[in-house]
UniProtKB/TrEMBL annotation:
Top EC group: hydrolase
Entry protein name: Glucosamine-6-phosphate deaminase
Coiled coil, from the record: none
InterPro entries assigned to the protein according to its UniProt record, in alphabetical order: GlcN6P_deaminase-like, Glucosamine6P_isomerase_CS, NagB/RpiA_transferase-like
Length: 274
């Protein structure tokens, strides 16, 4: 079966009534700087009101972090009342976190590229830099509840429509899929392949087989959801996200009814040809 939406031009993609709001921006820099600006603005607003700021943060996309670090340091933005709850982490074959010095470790990435680069006088305490723990998966959900919810969930969309590592599962109803909380799971062959190409120089045989991921429950209950897409294969992914059927076989489609969600893409992704 052929799906016409995969051939939609940029004008059709934006103008044919997408089921998920799509915002086309010039290039990666504009998408990522926009995400960083929204992070900073939310923190500034909440700091001014004496409130906590709680983000669910990805390692993919990551282009927003250099802009965020620069803005925090330049503005001397106090992060002491900010919580970064990372979406996921790779696990080894014993289903424990990969070591922090593993080239794919999300914990290592955040430490090197975000936390170590922020002025120590501004950075949030270590206990507010949170990763889901395979030995205590429910801790993330409990923490979010104690904090009063998530202000913004940032993320991307995977090759099979997954957000975080919430892999497609057509055996579940949409309601069942959205009710899944933080958990350990096996990564699909498609996701391992796409991530090996994008993040590991194609070294598929060394890609981890397991991960821990925040669930669609935590993501869908965030007050805002902001997604970004920029890779060549995102051309098909965003078209299916915007116009395909709502199904657990393409998880991002289940977020369409969220009251405050958008998907930012580049002109490159919006185009059908280079």
């Amino acid at each position: 079966m052929r799906h016409d939406y995969y051939q939609y031009t940029k004008e059709q993609l934006v103008g044919n009534g997408p089921k998920l709001p799509v915002i086309v921006m010039k290039d990666n820099a504009q998408v990522f700087s926009s995400m960083a600006q929204e992070m900073v603005q939310e923190i500034e607003k909440n700091n001014g009101e004496g409130k906590k700021t709680v983000f669910i943060c990805p390692v993919g996309p990551v282009g927003q972090y250099p802009y965020f670090v620069d803005m925090v340091n330049e503005k001397k933005l106090d992060l002491k009342n900010v919580w970064f709850i990372n979406m996921d982490e790779y696990l080894d074959d014993e289903k424990r976190w990969v070591s922090v010095d593993h080239p794919l470790s999300f914990r290592g990435f955040m430490q090197r590229n975000v936390y170590d680069k922020i002025d120590p006088k501004l950075i949030m305490p270590k206990e507010q830099r949170v990763f889901p723990d395979p030995e205590n998966p429910q801790a993330v959900t409990e923490l979010i509840n104690r904090l009063g919810g998530v202000d913004i969930c940032f993320g991307g969309i995977g090759i099979n429509g997954h957000v975080a590592f919430n892999e497609a599962d057509s055996s579940l109803s949409p309601e069942q899929f959205l009710d899944q909380k933080t958990r350990v799971l096996e990564i699909t062959k498609e996701t391992r392949t796409a991530n090996a190409i994008g993040d590991f120089n194609g070294a598929l045989e060394d890609m981890p087989h397991y991960c821990i991921t925040i669930g669609m429950y935590e993501i869908s209950h965030a007050r805002k959801i902001r997604l970004g897409c920029f890779r060549n294969w995102h051309r098909a992914v965003v078209r299916r996200a915007a116009y395909g059927e709502t199904t657990s076989d393409f998880p991002v489609s289940l977020l369409r009814d969220h009251p405050d969600i958008n998907l930012k893409i580049t002109e490159y992704v919006a185009a059908l040809e280079d």
